[in-house]
């Protein structure tokens, strides 16, 4: 299971609504809206996990 970096939902990789690659890592999303938000500002969502 992967974690959607935008909404923090668990996403089954094989059933993800969308994926994105950033800095060589693949991210999985529960919905296209989460992917769009991530693609506009990936660092915003990745920085949250480092707190």
Summarize the structure.
With 51 residues, the chain is α+β, with helices and mostly antiparallel strands.
Structure overview:
Helix content is 31%, strand content 27%. It is built from two helices and four strands. It has helices spanning 32-40, 42-48, and strands at residues 2-3, 10-11, 18-22, 25-29. The longest helix has 9 residues, at 32-40. It is globular and about 25 Å long.
Mean pLDDT: 93
Helical fraction equals 25-40%
Count the helices. How many? Answer: 2
* Strands ordered across the widest β-sheet: 1-2
The rounded Rg comes to 10 Å
Number of strands: 4
Shape: globular
Beta strand %: 25-35%
Order of helices and strands: EEEEHH
> Structural class, please?
alpha+beta
Unreliable residue runs: none
The number of domains: 1
CA(first)-CA(last) distance: 22 Å
Largest sheet: 2 strands, antiparallel
SSE blueprint and pairings:
Blueprint lengths: L1 E2 L6 E2 L6 E5 L2 E5 L2 H9 L1 H7 L3
Antiparallel strand pairs: 1-2, 3-4
């Amino acid at each position: 299971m992967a974690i959607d970096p935008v909404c923090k939902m668990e996403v089954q990789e094989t059933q993800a609504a969308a994926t994105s690659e950033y800095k060589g890592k693949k991210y999985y999303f529960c919905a296209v809206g989460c992917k769009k938000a991530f693609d506009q500002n990936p660092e915003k969502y990745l920085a949250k996990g480092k707190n």
